[in-house]
Amino acid sequence: MQMREISKLLGQFAMVGQLGLSLLMPLLLCLLLCYLLVTKLSVGAWVYIPGFVLGLGGSMTTAYKVYLSVIHREEKKKKERDSGEVYFNKHV
């Protein structure tokens, strides 16, 4: 394998890891906050339900933002790659 291929592969693994963390961390932070509310302030266990829903919402939001950044980066690479090519409708 060439160095460029290895670098590309490592970049893809990093994006998968970032996506995994962006899905997991908001949910865990919301559940940790719910745990602290239940143990320290003696709030009922019903707090876990809205905490779980809010954690999932945060996870979806951050995953969507990661998705948009990946799409934007790929479009930018495609424009850089295609800038030298001449198409039927692009003469100059």
UniProtKB/TrEMBL annotation:
Keyword field: Membrane, Transmembrane, Transmembrane helix
InterPro entries for the chain: ATPase_put (IPR032820)
Segments crossing the lipid bilayer: 21-39, 45-68
Xref: Pfam families: ATPase_gene1
The name this protein goes by in its record: F0F1-ATPase subunit Ca2+/Mg2+ transporter
